[in-house]
Amino acid sequence: MPAEVLNDPLGISCVFSNGSRLTATLGDTANPRLARDLLAGLAELVHPHGTVDAAGSVRHYLSALGGMVTALAGRGFTGSAADLHRAQVAEFWMGTTGAHEACTRRMLLGFAAAGGMLDARVGNWPRAAPITCSPSGARCRLIRRSCGPGLPRRARLR
Q1: For the residues of 129-157, what is the DSSP string, one character each?
Q2: Edge-to-edge strand order for the sheet containing 21-25?
Q3: What angle do the packed helices 32-45 and 98-113 form, to 10 degrees?
Q4: pLDDT, average across residues 8-33
Q5: Is residue 58 part of a domain?
Q6: What is the pTM of this model?
Q7: What CA–CA distance (Å, rounded) separates 35 from 37?
Q8: Is 154 domain-assigned?
Q9: Which residues have CB under 8 Å from 150's CB, separation 6+?
């Protein structure tokens, strides 16, 4: 049975290959539209569609989802995944852990694979290790050129 996004309350229900189950809800979230889209992406990644096949892994993805939703809401973002801009996503990824970056990348790609609309510049973002500034700053200049002049050298969401 594939994973299912729950609407009231917002969450996900999964059945894994070993027969175990997980139902997890998000509770109050700062941006339910984005959270629902990321949950749809997560559902696409869970067994049998994808390779996520354990409750602990789903909980880790949910932690990354919560971090992204909270951080972007703190910057005033209230839209859905389709409303995300490349610079917003890049700023979040630059200020989070590599694990949370990887999880949110995969959820966004899962959302697109499930038929969700995603800005092409977000969906085609390079799939690479977390972006950091080199001591010389050369890598940061490359990032600013690709994301636009408004991105600070060390963008962080707080």
Answers
A1: SPP---TTSHHHHHHHHHH-TTS-TT---
A2: 4-7, 10-15, 21-25
A3: 80
A4: 96
A5: yes
A6: 0.78
A7: 5
A8: no
A9: 87
State both tokens at 134.
């080199």
Return the exposure string of 120-144: e unless at least 16 CB atoms fall within 10 Å of the residue's CB, then b: eebbebeeeeebeeeeeeeebeebb
Number of domains in the chain: 1
Identify which of 90, 39, 32 has the alpha carbon closest to the alpha carbon of residue 64: 39
DSSP string, 42-86: HHHHBTTTSSB-SHHHHHHHHHHHHHHHHHHHHTT--S-GGG--H
pLDDT in tens, 131-153: 444 454 444 433 333 333 333 33
Give a yes or no: residue 25 inside a domain: yes
- Report the alpha-carbon distance of residue 80 to residue 102 in Å, rounded: 19
In Å, how far are 75, 108, 146 from 35, measured between CA atoms?
A: 15, 11, 27
What token pair was written down for 49? 């569609």
* Domain that includes residue 23, residue range: 4-147
Q: How many CB atoms are located within 10 Å of the residue 47 CB? A: 19
Measured CA to CA, the distance from residue 49 to residue 155 in angstroms comes to: 34
* Residue 155 covered by a domain: no
**Residue count (the chain):** 158
